[in-house]
Amino acid sequence: MDLENQKRVKEFAEQYGPENVVVLLGAAEGEASGLAAETVTAGDPTYAGPLTGVSLGLTVYHVVEPEVKEEFDPAVYDEAVSMMEMVLDVDDIIGEMTSIREQFCKYL
Amino acid sequence: MKAVIKGAGYILVHTPDMVLHNGTTQTTERIVNPESEYLKELPKHLRSFDEVCAYYPNQVYIGNKTPDDLAALEADKVRGWVDIKCDVTDRYGKFGQIMPQEEFLLLMQACDVFQLVMLDKDFVAEFKPQFAANPLISEDIVAKIPEAQTEAAEIARLVEEEHSEGLYHNGKLVGCVKRAHDIDVNLSSHVMHEDIVSKASSVLSILAAIKSTGVAKDDVEYVIDCCEEACGDMNQRGGGNFAKAAAEIAGLNNATGSDTRGFCAGPSHAIVEAAALVASGTYNTVMVTAGGCTAKLGMNAKNHVEKDLPALEDCLGGFAVVLTADNGVDPYINLQMVGRHTVGTGAAPQNVIGSLVAAPLAKNGLKITDIDKFSPEMQNPDITKPAGAGDVPLANYKMIAALAVKNGELQRADIATFPAKHGLTGWAPTQGHIPSGVPYIGFAREDILAGKIKNAMIIGKGSLFLGRMTNLFDGVSFVIEGNDGKTQEAGGVSEEEVKGLIAKAMKEFAATLMAQAE
Amino acid sequence: MSILAGKKVVIIGDRDGIPGEAIKLCAESAGAEVVFSSTECFV
Prior knowledge:
The structure holds 3 protein chains of 3 kinds. Chain A is mainly alpha-helical. Chain A has one domain. Chain A has helices spanning 3-16, 30-39, 66-69, 74-80, 82-87, 90-104, and strands spanning 21-25, 59-62. In chain A, strands 1-2 form a two-stranded parallel sheet. In chain A, β1, α2 (30-39) and β2 form a beta-alpha-beta unit. In chain A, α2 runs parallel beside α6 (90-104). The mean pLDDT of chain A is 95. Chain B is an alpha/beta fold. Chain B has one domain (3-487): Peroxisomal Thiolase, Chain A, domain 1, CATH 3.40.47. In chain B, 39% of the residues lie in helices and 16% in strands. Chain B has 20 helices and 13 strands. Chain B has helices at residues 16-22, 24-32, 37-41, 49-53, 56-61, 67-72, 101-111, 121-133, 139-142, 152-161, 189-213, 242-250, 266-279, 301-306, 349-363, 381-384, 392-406, 418-422, 441-449, 495-517; strands at residues 3-14, 96-99, 117-119, 165-169, 172-177, 222-225, 256-259, 285-290, 315-325, 332-340, 373-375, 455-462, 474-481. The longest helix of chain B is centred in the middle third of the chain and has 25 residues, at 189-213. The mean pLDDT of chain B is 95. Chain C has a two-stranded parallel sheet. Chain C is of the alpha+beta class. Chains in contact: A-B, A-C, B-C.
């Protein structure tokens, strides 16, 4: 994850409390989604950014995952995301995200 | 009048040492994690010049192989085309060439008019004959290399004490780019290095396009540069003008020019502008050019190293496209069918594709399936897939197909075959603006002339939000169509029409005379 | 209990996946407060 984005995530977690912050991702495939999710939960796996060694444990979902999808206004989701959902490997994304959440999320 | 595509030039420059010293992934890592395993591992993953020339996508880029050849190859599920040695390994192709680093450092010096690029005299003595032997490098360019060069010790001092940016070859310091001002950050050695690299690779692209099209240098009236760098000083950071600076070195004496910017959408904007300038009769011949970007070298190399792949982002890319007034033969750009992502379009991927693909076609009464080939973002999937960005061209084709289904123009069952039928497999390096639609223009012209396809849509998309001035996305598309040969005379008036107009005028004149006689 | 309603949402979109601004529309429709939205680019 971009270093500046890591810095912002860290600041928001400190400002609002990690239990009040949810991260939503839009990565193009499973592995990249998993890496981003790991960064905001267990810490930056590439040891490059401000979240290196910082386990925020934030709640994190990819925007195409059913748990968050059911909370969106269906018309808005249809307009903004639905067609891209056809392009992405949603099962792969769900698999990677679920695994990271089960291991590292602290506020589920 | 129509603006036709006279042809294009495409070049790659193999710069393995710049991957290590100038790519931002590496320069960032050296700041935040100087002792990292990655920095130790990366040099082992750099390819030799021969390996770069034998890499199939590179041979497609310079025109020795076609996109169809590439699509027909069986790529490995994990390693893609990495382990396939192309049966053509020539560094020269019909569209351009792959230049090795040693020649490029000399070209940088030839393109520097402020004595900022200093080279080790032994390095110059060793490689100047090779540089001069390059068929695109004319004597006037070789003559720009100064006779007096620099001692190695002085170069080391300039790097250590004077904030100069080092130039390396095979791991050895062989030169440097000096800062152009002691205080002005916009003229720092880092910025000057980036700008001179961009300029030099643009010059090489222009020379490649001149050669491949046969257009006379003196016929080029205007040049538009569409790279993603900015040149200027502290009082005008993006003052410009890369276009004219490159035209000067390339010997386009009758040209002026300007820079157009739009992140990766820059080339599409520039080509639409160039076509409009030609179509309006403002200029007869316009060239659109862009050099490469050092910052993006090795951008995704962490992922490549981790997966034990070569650091595939080891080449700068460049291209130049020549547009001229209608000659009745070459394919032309249909300026009535231009797609635009507007301020109000929004960021939803379906709206982006809708505005760029479906909207301009619908305006002209066409369906998505009426376009034979789409060239959106032609990034090489060997580079992007290991980095988690997926197969970018394929994702674009799936989106276009999904939109066609939504619009009732395509059966859902045909989504799977749409990419192979209407798409291409990506072969361009991830140099931002370089893969953005334009790599296909040279082939599109040939495929249309050969009757293989009747039209092609070029799509450029740009991530404007990276500049922190807006959250907006951007994109522009245009369609290239076969020339029906009907409107080759000036002003779009055919010979028959001219004869008709003259006959009508004569009749009216005769009638006037007769009226006067009466 | 809902995941998003009333929460502070941070969005990390992807240019070649779902861009941040598109996710923002969805999150707001679920009653979340979007405090940051960005879009990453790997190409």
